[in-house]
Amino acid sequence: GGGGSGGSIVSSTSALSGGDYSRFWTSIGPGYVEFLVKTNNIPLTKVGIDLKKALNQVSLRIKRLYSTSGLPDINKISSKHVSYQYFKVETNNMKSKDVNKVKYYLKIDKDWIDKNSIKLGDVSLYEKTSSGWDKISTTYIGDLGSSYLFEAIAYGFNTFVIAAATDKKIPTII
Fold first, then answer.
1. Contact 141, 151 (CB under 8 A)
2. What's the predicted TM-score (pTM) here?
3. 149 vs 30, 123, 138, 169, CA distance in Å?
4. pLDDT by residue (tens digit) across 8-34?
5. How confident is the model at residue 8, as a pLDDT?
6. Torsion of CA 155, 160, 166, 172, to 10 degrees
């Protein structure tokens, strides 16, 4: 038999108030589906989802989190870590168990990297767990002019923080 096309029918896409971003598909998968995130309030340029099976009536929403209330402290990673931005990925009719992996393409301002004396190899995406934050495999992949681009490979949808180790301890949130 042949493989799935990974094609999808997109019903709508929108940037919402407060910088949230949402996407809706009448059908999606199986296979790899990638889409651009078109809002400057969220530190993502695109998301790629490798689906195990076809799904219907799927929605995905990316929300920037302006408050860290109720979230584990960034110092649970280490006392040298500073946070760049927090965001949450919510879905309907698509669960983490339905995907093989999710690629998050992160866009981080060079000013924040420079101001905090951060090495590019020390930037990572972290996923919220019951005990704190788990480091997600994150790789520097390019220079976008005023920002750097990273690829992080997770295994689903959750609350995340982009953070980095620094020798300067300045709690900077952009």
1. yes
2. 0.87
3. 27, 11, 10, 23
4. 445 455 555 567 899 999 999 999 999
5. 46
6. 160
